[in-house]
Write a structure and sequence with these properties.
The structure holds 2 protein chains of 2 kinds. By secondary structure, chain A is mainly α. In chain A, 79% of the residues lie in helices and 0% in strands. Chain A has one domain. Chain A has helices at 3-17, 20-39, 51-55, 57-69, 71-79, 81-86, 92-112, 115-124, 129-156, 160-177, 180-183, 192-200, 203-211, 217-241. In chain B, strands 6-7-8-3-9-10 form a 6-stranded mixed sheet, sandwiched between helices. The radius of gyration of chain B is 24 Å and the shape is elongated. The longest helix of chain B is centred in the middle third of the chain and has 14 residues, at 165-178. In chain B, helix 3 (91-101) packs across helix 4 (107-119). Chain B is 34% helix and 27% strand. In chain B, a hairpin with a 6-residue loop joins strand 12 (248-253) and strand 13 (260-265). The chains are: A mainly alpha, B alpha/beta.
Chain lengths: 244, 313
């Protein structure tokens, strides 16, 4: 097993060694149920798709994902284990990536466990399962984007609560960037290319099309590059701030 | 062999380590001494590759810790200050994780883990999660992960801090047993530890080396070196008797025991035979009489306070 794999395994294991993973998964499933069936009007719509289910994911992730990301680095710094970890013969990139992938796998597990909703919609009607699979993947990639921001924020501070708040704030910014609420607020003299660039950075812009079943490789590419960028930033912040 | 040349580590405007050069050979157990904030931990963090130097170089067996970090880190076992480890893991799980990172595979993992568990006596807490362990056990878990891969270089930041006397004795015995072919660097402010385990002592203050030598060499720099301590059962005028002796520098009476005297020697020369002769001639009522080797604490205070401009801790 490579060092990346060893770190990944240890991190994932530690989520399940504490109640964190279970609490996360249970709350995630319950909230998903409430959002989809109560607020989303799943039955009332009378359509065999999962749009109401996926539509709430950005808002659900906004609070749930920072909760797992906040401890990624803040706790290592607080307990001093970062000194142990970074003096072992492992490259920093393996540690950053291993930790991120473990947290991402946890959100993946939580997402997979929502499968009863997919079974339900198949039982009730005849949905386009290709669209659903794509939307699941898109949702998972978006969770990765949130997590990568969280990884960087967690590296900035020893205090995991501060990391949580910072992550929520920045994630919120990226969620609404592509939404009409924000775009309409731009003054009309702003050049169109700037508004477009702004909107292109928004999570909703990319996720909405994925959720509707428009499988565009560019949307996945956006999230991949986004994750890579924030992880790189995490590594730089760790390198800079490990002394204090 | 560890070669530290002109190492400087700056935090903003503050020099934690200031142009420090030092080389350490195999078989040496180096005691790293200094007041709090002198730069001991920072130096160790740079040697282990946790912090990068502001300027200067550290090489471990020829591998530069900045440019060939992985090769250098493989040679090092490190116990950071406070012995941090993952509290949510059990002793066994944590040590298995370390064994994997250290590159052991398959049955080797269990062999290595069993070996260190026996070496530092962790059998009773194998399956206990680390956060529930006592301070002494946590320290031993930290020590176990540091020695797991039988490293050439062992760096221990305050390994016995917070341990009880039995545990301290155990850790020191362990360090001594490891010492033969390794480089061991121990930071401590317990001076007796240096005399007990170290073959070389380096005192640093304000990021600079202020003393370097074997513990006995340093002790001989003390004004207590070759001094004679005499305790009497009855009052007697020692000072008058000793006035004729050329080798005696001064005589001091202890404050809380007026019958206890310290006779200081001039220039660290032996005055034992002369003083004992005078004592016999003048029938001193002696209850205790012994020669001091010198006090490391005394040397420590004189060299570190000198550089701090007489400020006390």
């Amino acid at each position: 097993m490579s060092n990346l794999g060893i770190i990944f395994k240890r991190e994932l294991y530690s989520y399940f060694a504490t109640p964190l993973a279970y609490v996360f998964i249970i709350i995630f499933l319950i909230s998903n149920g409430i959002f989809t069936f109560d607020l989303g009007g799943f039955f009332l719509r009378g359509q065999a798709d999962l749009l109401p289910f996926f539509g709430f994911h950005p808002w659900l992730y906004l609070f749930m994902v920072p909760a797992i990301a906040m401890t990624l680095w803040a706790d290592e710094r607080k307990t001093g284990t970062i000194e142990l970890l970074l003096t072992l013969p492992i490259r920093l990139v393996d540690v950053v990536l291993g930790k991120f992938l473990a947290a991402w796998a946890l959100t993946g597990i939580a997402l997979t466990l929502t499968f009863p909703i997919w079974v339900t919609v198949n039982y009730l009607g005849d949905p386009d399962n290709g669209v659903i699979v794509a939307a699941y993947l898109g949702s998972w990639f978006m969770a990765g984007g949130f997590l990568a921001i969280g990884s960087c924020m967690s590296a900035c501070t020893k205090n995991s609560v501060i990391a949580f708040i910072l992550t929520v704030a920045i994630c919120f910014l990226f969620v609404i960037m592509g939404s009409p609420i924000l775009l309409n607020a731009f003054p009309s003299w702003m050049p169109q290319w700037l508004v477009d660039a702004f909107s292109a950075m928004g999570f909703l812009t990319h996720f909405d099309s994925i959720a509707k079943g428009v499988l565009d490789i560019r949307d996945f590419l956006f999230f991949s590059v986004f994750i890579g960028g924030w992880l790189l930033a995490s590594a730089i912040v760790i390198e800079m701030k490990k002394a204090n | 062999m560890i070669e530290i040349s002109h190492l400087t580590k700056k935090f903003d405007q503050f020099f934690a380590v200031d142009d420090l050069s030092l080389s350490i050979r195999e078989g040496e157990v180096l005691g790293f001494l200094g007041p709090n904030g002198a730069g001991k931990s920072t130096t160790m963090k740079v040697i282990t590759g946790f912090l990068s130097p502001s300027s200067g170089r550290v090489t471990i067996d020829g591998h530069d810790i900045s440019t060939a970090a992985l090769e250098a880190k493989r040679l090092i076992g490190y116990l950071p200050e406070g012995a941090p480890s993952y509290g949510d893991m059990t002793t066994l799980e944590f040590l298995r994780f370390i064994a994997q990172v250290r590159g052991f595979r398959g049955v080797e993992i269990e062999q290595k883990v069993d070996q260190v568990i026996n070496e530092v006596a962790l059998q009773t807490v194998r399956d206990q999660s680390i956060e529930t362990l006592s301070k002494g056990f946590k320290r031993r878990v930290g020590l176990a992960q540091a020695i797991m891969h039988d490293p050439k270089v062992l760096i221990l930041d305050e390994p016995t801090d917070g341990l009880d006397p039995n545990q301290k004795h155990h850790v020191r015995a362990l360090i001594k047993s490891l010492a033969t072919d390794k480089i061991i660097i121990i930071s401590t402010h317990i001076l007796e530890e240096v005399t007990a385990v170290c073959s070389r002592a380096v005192i640093i203050a304000d990021g600079k080396i202020v003393a370097d030598g074997t513990p006995s060499e340093l002790e001989s720099q003390s004004r207590f070196h070759q001094a004679i301590r005499v305790t009497l059962t009855d009052s007697h005028d020692l000072v008058a008797d000793l006035a004729t002796l050329p080798g005696v520098a001064s005589v001091e009476v202890e404050e809380d025991n007026k019958l206890a005297y310290t006779i200081f020697a001039k220039g660290g020369a032996s005055i034992f035979s002369q003083v004992s002769e005078i004592a016999q001639q003048n029938h001193w009522p002696i209850s205790e009489f012994h020669v001091e080797r010198g006090q490391l604490e005394d040397v420590f205070r004189s060299v570190t306070q000198l550089s701090e401009g007489q400020t006390d801790e």
